[in-house]
Design a protein that fits this description.
230 residues, alpha+beta, seven-stranded mixed sheet, four-stranded mixed sheet, 32% helix
């Protein structure tokens, strides 16, 4: 399959035309309008420093159904003990920056390159992007962020400075989304961390179908707040 070069026009090729590795297009911009259109079509940006903007739609697609999140005994114990204080949408900029910094500290490349962070902050200001924060002794030690459209949450990245902090943040997100009757969390590609918490691979065609149904439902714009597990 060819890789499509995007123009200034707000349009994407159909996701099923993506390459075997999921790469669909190159170019375009990170405007809110283009990002929203991309997510609505099951497409997301992911590229490294020095690369042009790359757009992906992998097959299969990893998703997590909020009601089916797997919370281990040890994680339940951590939650009951109140090891972390969880908040939502209180420091989005700090969370997305920490997601980038945590990879850099490990010597890994980050896709949160120049232009990405301001783009997602813009979506946060529009009430479409959200963060979940895990605090310990009033210090931000873990969290995640993503985009919410319809009743789908598109998970983007997470970080953890203290063991279990990002897992508790994800458990809190699932608890919150279940209460809001969200359909699914898009995890994009498989990881052992997400698999351990119940995320599964589904065919891209099924993901696109479920996404279309979810987008027809009333969105829940931010800011969000977390009212606790119990």
């Amino acid at each position: 399959m060819p890789v499509f070069r995007l123009s200034e026009a707000l349009i994407f090729p159909p996701p099923h035309l993506a390459r075997e590795d999921g790469l669909l297009g190159v170019g375009g911009d990170l405007s809110p309008q283009r990002l929203i259109l991309a997510y609505q079509n099951g497409i997301f940006p992911w590229f490294s420093p020095g690369e042009p903007i790359l757009w992906w739609s992998p097959d299969p697609r990893m998703v997590l159904f909020p009601r089916k999140v797997n919370i281990s005994r040890s994680l339940k114990k951590c939650i009951r003990k109140g090891q972390f204080t969880i908040t939502m949408d209180t420091c989005f900029r700090e969370v997305i920056t920490a997601c980038a910094d945590s990879r850099t500290r490990r010597g890994e490349e980050t896709w949160l390159v120049d232009g990405m962070i301001p783009a997602y902050i813009h979506l946060y200001e529009m009430g479409l992007a959200h963060s979940v924060e895990a605090w310990q002794n009033k210090v931000l030690v873990g969290g995640l962020y993503g985009i919410s459209l319809g009743r789908t949450f598109f998970g983007e990245s997470m970080f953890s400075l203290v063991s279990n902090s990002s897992k508790v943040a994800l458990a809190a997100l699932c608890h919150h989304l279940t209460a809001l009757k969200f359909d699914l969390i898009d995890c994009q590609v498989a990881t052992n961390h997400l698999s351990s918490m119940g995320a599964v691979d589904i065919p891209r065609s099924l993901f696109i179908q479920k996404l279309a149904q979810s987008l027809n439902k009333k969105p829940v714009k931010g800011p969000w707040s977390f009212n606790g597990f119990f």
